[in-house]
Amino acid sequence: MVKKKNKPEVKNRKLIAFTNPKSRVSEQFRTLRTNIHFTVPGGKVRSLVVTSASHLEGKSTTSSNLAIVFAQEGKRVLLIDADMRKPTMHQTFKISNSKGLSNVLVRRFSLKMAIQASGIENLDLLPSGPIPPNPAELLGSSNMDLLFESALDTYDMIIFDSPPVLSVTDSVILANKCEGTILVLNSGKTERAHALKAKDAITASTKTRLLGTVLNNVQVEKDFNYAQYYTRAPNEK
């Protein structure tokens, strides 16, 4: 584990599970964590991919806060920015992106050298690193398998923030390496056809278990007017 700082230097509203743990939205992330436990046989899952149908649906915010609530549960968590096309983790956590996943996959740095502290207890970060010309090839390489095995030796949970599944093959490649996948949708943006196509891309092309969906920006009753997150099992009506 990387030695933690006292606190993150940034008060980022996107990290609401840390900055405002008593909020209703933070509680929804804890509900998501609980649902994941109950969805997986034995309640044990050690590797997750978080993806979306398209861009700007909230996958990175979801993966960050999900990593935080698992860390708050006492698990040693590594959050990996596997979106080596449009990475955002370094901006969210205000860390350097000069080295990260891409450097490790081409063996310029070891995993231990590339991991950074989040400032949140039990949570470490692996940013994307410099954008490579061949993200999909790197994610499907034997070096990625070695990275995965090494991370599982140290951490209880690995969460990948991956690109939208309908845009590139990266998420499908990662999903085949992980125990579970979460699909993030935006209630005011995602078209039904795209949501179904994204689900099919995951279930038909991978060996992973689609644990459910996270629906962002649900407009609820006036007394509960906040961005709500919740999960639904893939076959639930």
TrEMBL record:
CDD domains: BY-kinase
Reactions catalysed: L-tyrosyl-[protein] + ATP = O-phospho-L-tyrosyl-[protein] + ADP + H(+)
InterPro entries: AAA_dom (IPR025669), Bact_polysacc_biosynth/exp (IPR050445), P-loop_NTPase (IPR027417), Wzc-like_C (IPR005702)
Alphabetical UniProt keywords: ATP-binding, Kinase, Nucleotide-binding, Transferase, Tyrosine-protein kinase
Enzyme Commission number, as recorded: 2.7.10.2
Top-rank lineage group of the source organism: Bacteria
Domain AAA per the UniProt entry, residue ranges: 58-175
Gene3D superfamilies cross-referenced by the UniProt entry: P-loop containing nucleotide triphosphate hydrolases (3.40.50.300)
The UniProt record lists the keyword Nucleotide-binding: yes
Pfam families: AAA_31
Family, similarity comment: Belongs to the CpsD/CapB family.
UniProt protein name: non-specific protein-tyrosine kinase
Organism annotation: Planococcus donghaensis MPA1U2
